[in-house]
Write a structure and sequence with these properties.
Structural class: alpha/beta
Largest sheet: 5 strands, parallel
Strand content: 5-15%
Number of helices: 18
Helix content: 40-55%
Radius of gyration: 27 Å
Oligomer: single chain
Order of helices and strands: HHEHEHHEHEEEHHEHEHHEHHEEHHHHH
Number of strands: 11
Shape: globular
Strand order of the largest sheet: 2-3-6-1-7
Amino acid sequence: MDVQAIKRTFGIIGTDPELDRAIGIAAQVAATDLTVLITGESGTGKDVFPKIIHQNSTRKHGQYFAVNCGAIPEGTIDSELFGHEKGSFTGAVNERKGYFEIADKGTLFLDEVGELPLSTQARLLRVLENGEFIRVGGNKVMKTDVRIVAATNVDLPVAIERGRFREDLYYRLNTIPIHIPALRERKADIPLLFRKFAADFAERNHIPAITLTPEAVKMLENYRWDGNVRQLKNVTEQISIMETDRNITTETLAKYLPNRVINNLPVLLPREDTPEGMSERDLLYRVLFDMKKDIAELRAQVNNMSSGRPMEPTYVQPNSVTQIGDTMVTRVSQNEPDEVEQEFAEFVPAEETSHYSTLSSGSTTETLSLEHHEKEMIIKALETHRGKRKDAAKALGISERTLYRKINEYGINL
């Protein structure tokens, strides 16, 4: 089946060459039993590609299961995937077959595979290497013939460096890599998708379809779309139901695009000495305090010159502009230091100054560490939701299993 036929069959909209290449790889590898790793941001449509592979393979008449590894608690993920024996743990009143057993001769799609705990990763590696697994609480080695397609929006090489993902498992999964481009990387497809979503929504709800002015089309194309296709569909449906004027202008569209000033300009990359986990706000304050330090050094040099003392050589950064999130930061040299210092004082809230005043010397690494911020956020979420971990995990934007792991890691007791 060629790329265009696959697009028609699976309802894929777009003409981007990288998207076509990803579809072509999926179609080409489908006839084999090789393991496939699909990467890309959340909302790009990674879940469609395992279906393309399965439907175009010799296993198309076998079982197809999609498992969201990030949505299953760590304590039950092994049982879900590999099954368990009766009495193997509290509540195991009967034996249970896992997905690897049920999907024998078929295809198993492991979504969010980067969220698997290390113990489960070891079990998965054994299945990939020789097709063997053992049920939880069992001692009998069982065999399975399953085609594995995995997907993740996690940067697995980085996760390997941090000890959160097994390197040997990564290479087993990454036999055939398929990368799905982000929506912002395929701008020409954005108006096509908008029209498709608008037409589908109008047909379902028996209302006229919305259209965009040429200026609104440009705004749509230049928006960042962090949520990718999923976010675009959500915005399209919101506008379709809320707006009575069916021709959408930039003023109307702007109301539905949060943080719409964000575009694809470069962002500030942390320096090598930047503590892990610093937020954009922390990085911004660091730049500003470095800037204030330069101004102080410049003022000292001017005072030395005025009093006739020799000027000590000091390197002052040349003028440069850096974007941090939505904010443009101008780093200055000798031009108008008093005005810059005044702007700095206005920009940084007084209550933040004491907290961040030693950023340039690196002495607040512990305060700004990932653990400090994460622990505070987790405690606040748990208190807000009265200890209900499922609700707290949803509020934090992480899986419930990840929240359980963080609670144990930080020793949080509420």
